[in-house]
């Protein structure tokens, strides 16, 4: 018998021995094999994590010298070992996501972000009972968000941003009791916001086609919500006073929508730091009550349809550092303190109908609207000074 044949037989014998005596649960190994098989081999670079997945070795064995060098984390305290984390490198893998991933029942983290996965998101993912974070960010997944996604009970972070998902948001999102962070930005989602998960900290659904008004019923009980990022949608109507009174709210970005009015009540206490409402269709006056939010340091109402004077209260607000009111029809004389060097406010008051906005100030570098346009905005008469 030749030496080459002997070596081949030895290799096959060793492979069979490894698989028959695997440390990892066989169903976990089968799920990993199905996961890799659903990815186009031509999109698996030689230097990548998946290239090191060689099933002649046990996925959870140590040390990981040549096989399964990255992409997996296992628990070695159980017998057999179980896969607890599947985190791929952004190597440009392309393929569908195998529904058999749902057999990795001890999976805690699943992260496939920054690749080229396509097709629908498997509904079977929701049967992963221990999953705490799920990121399919920056891929090419399409179709609706599976309604079964709301069956997750342990999930704390859900990130589907940067795909081509369409349709409405699942109606019973609020059943995801442990969800803290939700990011569905840069998709093709439509419709209005349903009732949101009660323990949410961050809500990010930027650059979709959400429409309708923001209703208090969607935000009821969200006492921990800190960040709302809903810019670049088609939200409309009035932003009512309850919204800014959410007790933990810190950052709001609703720019590039179609909001027409904003109602602001004085707060008793507030953590609100930054408000971005630029590029809407907001009419009326600059909301004076925003100046009473104690922590507010950044405010943008640029390119709306606001009229009247800039409230003097904004000139008394010491924490205010960024103020963008350009692109409206504001008139009168802006607070003199803005130009005294005492406040350190940056931003823009240009492209309005203001009088006495000194060109020596960066706030006034953008010129004011022509008088004819300002007269037309105020009914043909001379703009009212305040």
Describe the model.
Residues 1-20 form the signal peptide. This is Leucine-rich repeat-containing N-terminal plant-type domain-containing protein. Its main location: membrane. Residues 26-66 form the Leucine-rich repeat-containing N-terminal plant-type domain. Keywords: Leucine-rich repeat, Membrane, Repeat, Signal, Transmembrane, Transmembrane helix. By secondary structure, this protein is an alpha/beta fold. Helices cover 12% and strands 23% of the residues. The protein contains five helices and 24 strands. It has a 13-stranded mixed sheet, with no helix packed on it. The radius of gyration is 28 Å and the shape is elongated.
Characteristic key phrases:
386 residues; 12% helix; transmembrane helix; 24 strands; RLP29; single chain; LRR_N_plant-typ; disordered C terminus; 13-stranded mixed beta sheet; disordered N terminus; alpha/beta; leucine-rich repeat
What is the total tally of β strands?
Answer: 24
Strand content: 15-25%
Helix content: 10-25%
Discrete helix count: 5
Question: How would the global form be characterised?
Answer: elongated
Q: What's the main sheet like?
A: 13 strands, mixed
Sheet/helix structural class: alpha/beta
The average pLDDT is 92
